[in-house]
Design brief:
Layout lengths: L2 E3 L1 H5 L4 E5 L3 E2 L2 H11 L4 H4 L1 H4 L11 H6 L1 H8 E3 L5 E10 L9 E14 L2 E12 L7 E9 L1
Length: 149
């Protein structure tokens, strides 16, 4: 379910849970395309035959692929109705506690942690956790920043 806020409401929404997204499957093709785009073609990501005997028992998504999905996932949970511009602003901290095996399903759990008015708009902090279905440890935890203007 998407939460819709105005910029003024966003300033007052510190501590507001945004909920969780729908589950989404991480496919090998998506991992391969990310490897091509970034030049990171390490075998644990792109070689299913070799990866079966590797540390994860199969191919895994790049941690940065998981990170790169945050804007689209947050977009499923939060809409700023009177914003004409929304951009990534930064990363406060990110950790990758567990891998995402290719074929696994992930979802985002998000929390608005706070905001700060700037001359160009409002910078807001989102606490993020990428959960992996059936896995105790999350794939990603941290805090990211976005700018709405």
């Amino acid at each position: 379910m998407t939460t819709t806020l105005t910029i003024a409401e966003l300033e007052q929404a510190s501590g507001r849970e945004l909920g969780t997204t729908a589950w989404r499957t991480i496919e090998q093709e998506q991992v391969n395309l990310f490897a091509e785009a970034t030049g990171d073609r390490q075998w644990i990501h792109v070689d299913p035959e070799a990866a079966v005997n590797g540390p994860f028992g199969g191919t895994v998504a790049h941690g940065y692929l998981t990170l790169a999905l945050l804007p689209v996932l947050i977009g499923e949970l939060l809409e700023i109705s009177d914003s004409s511009l929304g951009v990534n602003y930064g990363i406060e901290r990110i950790r990758f506690p567990a891998p995402v095996r290719t074929g696994a399903r992930i979802r985002l759990l998000a929390l608005l942690e706070g905001s700060e008015r700037r001359a160009i708009g409002i910078v807001y902090r989102v606490g993020v956790t990428i959960e992996v279905e059936g896995q105790e440890k999350p794939a990603l935890v941290g805090e990211v920043l976005y700018l709405a203007a």
